[in-house]
Amino acid sequence: MPLExxxxxxxxxxxxxxxxxxxxxxxxxxxxxxxxxxxxxEISNLAQPASGHIYFTxxxxxxxxxxxxxxxxxxxxxxxxxxxxxxxxxxxATLFEPRGDFQLIIDHMEPGGEGALRLEFERxxxxxxxxxxxxxxxxxxxxxxxxxVGLITSPSGAAVRDLLAVLxxxxxxxxVVIYPAxxxxxxxxxxxxxxxxxxxARAECDVLILxxxxxSLEDLHAFxxxxxxxxxxxxxxxxxxxxxxxxxVSIADLVADRRGATPSAAAELVAPSGDHLRHRLxxxxxxxxxxxxxxxxAARQRLNAVARHLALLHPSARLQQRAQRLDQLEQRLVxxxxxxxxxxxxxxxxxxxxxxxxxxxxQLAGLGVRVAALAERLARARVRLAxxxxxxxxxxxxxxxxxxxxxxxxxxxxxxxxxxDGAIVRTPEQAPEGTRIEARLARGRLIAVVESDSxx
Length: 456
Prior knowledge:
The protein has four domains: about 20-120, CATH 2.40.50.140; about 135-270, Response regulator (Rossmann fold, 3-Layer(aba) Sandwich), CATH 3.40.50.2300; about 315-405; about 410-450, no CATH class. Residues about 1-10 have low confidence and may be disordered. About 50% of the residues lie in helices and about 20% in strands. Helix 5 packs parallel to helix 6 (about 225-235). It is of the alpha/beta class. The strands form three sheets. It has a five-stranded mixed barrel with strand order 1-2-3-5-4. The chain has a five-stranded parallel β-sheet with strand order 7-6-8-9-10. Strands 12-11-13-14 form a four-stranded antiparallel β-sheet, with no helix packed on it.
């Protein structure tokens, strides 16, 4: 009879996995442990079923891995994958549970040569960003009105023609210097760095434009050069880039002081707008005219104030003051004469009294005759003094009358005042048509109404 294999009792505390559970937990570990990966390899076993998904194996000399790319991502491809093609894929590692196969779920795929350049681009981008070469604080402002612009580009490419056309359209008087450089090929990075160094050494421009037309990632590889990026940052002159199309972003774009999406856009950033300058000049001219008008108004106001001040110093006002002074002098003269006569009479009365009481008759008679003679002399002197004073007074009155406004009126002039306020009319503007006026003549007054004026 056959031998029986001994049976060992199962330990109840052992954790026994089912195949499904194992596959599920392995998948969970893979999904949670790996970030999104970039993997480069060769396509083989390519399958493209009617569902629109594609399945293939990605391999190199030492290993291979299954890959799946589902239809929503596949339709975004800009090329048709083929067996034996070198590609760069981006995806996540997982496990296909039904078969227990390790695989990559692909969300992006590009041809391998360009993919290597893309990887190098991303590596250099992270490196330079960590060093602070892309920091906005380190970037210099672009001059608003450059005296001269330098172009670092190929002198025979389409980009230089676009740059010159835009600069001429924006500001035709802006001088431009071209620093020739290769913009494609193995020698291009060194050529671009040399042109940038020459522009800085000559120091004849206020801003530089580093530009070339569009192309593939490989065509633009010269502008992803680390040495060129450091040269741009070390440049003493601000640098504006205009590399490729709007969707193309190079290392040079990231490190430059300003980036134009295209060469034409870079020229737009650098050249001031002639139309804008013309509008600005018009606005400044208007401000100048307004300031001039305000200045004229202020000057006119000051002139009016001076005119009012001069009116207070007019000769008529001074004549009135002189006439008042003459009246005061006349009053003082009359008072002085009266005082002198009173004093003389005061001295005569005591002498007459003494004569009355003098004793000899002859002396009395002689003294009487003498007193009479003295009285006569005194009377004559008084008359002469009065005449002399009167003549002086008349001469002063005649001089005053010669300077009086009444004498001016006697020569045929008139003083015109506006009714009813009595304001003196000096110009036609002060008495427009229909105004009632009064004309003071040498003898009498006239009331009239203005029919017209000759102010215009």
